[in-house]
Amino acid sequence: MSGGPGPGSAPGLGEDDVIRMLAAFGDRAPNQVDDVVGSLELTWLLAEIEQRYGVVVDLDADDMGAIQTVADATRVLGRAVAAAEPEAGGTVGAVAGADEGPAPA
Predict the structure, then answer these.
(1) Spatial contact of 70 and 37, defined as CB atoms under 8 Å apart
(2) Please, are residues 54 and 88 in contact by the beta-carbon 8 Å criterion?
(3) Of 32 and 6, which is predicted with more confidence?
(4) Minimal CB count within 10 Å: which of 20, 58, 66, 98?
(5) Which H or E element spans position 55?
(6) Contact (CB, 8 A) for 14 and 82
(7) Could you count the other beta carbons within 10 Å of the beta carbon of residue 18?
(8) What is the spatial distance between Cα 68 and Cα 66, in angstroms, rounded to a whole number?
(9) Cα–Cα distances in Å, from 23 out to 16, 17, 84?
(10) pLDDT at residue 9 above 50?
(11) Torsions phi, psi of 91, nearest 5?
(12) Residues in CB range of 46: below 8 A, 6 or more apart
């Protein structure tokens, strides 16, 4: 696994970052993290990213289903973090504009 960000990921979120966050789940060494990301690990990873980057990650079902490996998580979540609003608490993901209220009639 490479240490830097993959194509389409945020410069601040690389595979090494994802591996370290996953290693904290279960108190493992980074070299003990499997390449496959399970559903509980994904939940943990989302919470960790939200805390680290100060955003709310709200992925749609397609994006959630696309995360099967560490590389997938780096790519999908890196894009979500890169698209985040600079303000803390901004929503990123499939419904990034949903909190803007109803469209004018």
Answers:
(1) yes
(2) yes
(3) 32
(4) 98
(5) strand 55-58
(6) no
(7) 29
(8) 6
(9) 10, 10, 25
(10) no
(11) -95, 135
(12) 57, 59, 77
pLDDT above 50 for 67: yes
Query: Is the confidence at residue 75, as pLDDT, over 90?
Result: yes
Chain position carrying tokens 């993959």: 6
Q: Which two tokens stand for residue 101?
A: 């209220």
User: 61-89: string of b/e by CB count within 10 Å (b at 16+)?
Assistant: eebeeebebbbbbbbbbbbbbbebeeeee
**pTM greater than 0.85:** no
- pLDDT recorded at residue 94: 42
**What pLDDT is recorded for position 85?**
59
Per-residue pLDDT reduced to its tens digit, 29-62: 999 999 999 999 999 999 999 898 888 888 899 9
The first and second tokens of residue 86, run together, are 């600079």
Residues whose CB is less than 8 angstroms from the CB of residue 59 and which lie 6 or more positions away in sequence, other chains included: 46, 76, 80, 93, 94
